[in-house]
Amino acid sequence: MTAKRNRWLVGTVLTLALAAFLSLSLLPFFGTNNRQADSNADTPATDPSSMQAELEAQARGYELVLEREPDNQTALQGLVDARIQLGDIQGVVEPLEKLVELNPDVPEYSVLLAQTKQQIGDLEGAAQIYRNVLDQQPGNMNALQGLVALLIQQDRPQAAIGLLQDTLKTAEQLEDDTAAVGIDTPSVKLLLAQVYVETGNTDQALALYEEIIAEAPDDFRPVLAKALVLQEQGDQDTAQSLFAQASAMAPAQFKDQIDQMASQSPPSAVDGMEEASPTD
User: Which of the residues in the chain have pLDDT under 50?
Assistant: First the structure.
């Protein structure tokens, strides 16, 4: 299996299948971009230069507020959102660090900061933030997914496997503690199986998918993941049956995506997903 197809398989299942049942979106914290996109859909196209000027003015306004009120979280959030839209990813770090400081019990800010550091190339800084979140919440799937993706990016799949295996051991220990917050074991196993796919250990991945299917028979994610692997291996008949099963089980908003994947040959599916997926 080529490295290109490995990346596609990992990206497909992590972004589609996991996102179906995990709270991966941080948009509740920074939703102005979406709201602006919605309003723009009903109005004539705005000149890019005037849009740029407007965003720069918004950012400057938030900066002025923060000079007077450095702990103003509305201004901090607005500055983060404006700078993201301006493409100033480096400039997002400072206000995000302040939001993390002001909200130590809100891991979403920390995860977003880690993602930002990862994007600007500060991989060690990102990894440390992910680990800090996981020290407090070993079952935080946002942080776990982020750290696994980072380790894969660093060509350290064995470290990713060890991290996920340790998380599963922690999950077993927490089962005996009724007061502890549990870990989403099927999601962790899905992540582990996809790392096996990345390393070419598809037999281990398929075995783990079967295990998840047995443990969570109503979960479409392992069915979809298995279909993707078998499609890649050329077992189209079995893959198509699994795609149909996954589509029938999945929430309505994912059915079309699954059906499209099922209708494509593996090379086309690879190219299509890579074109559609954002670069992280």
Answer: 1-43, 179-180, 267-280
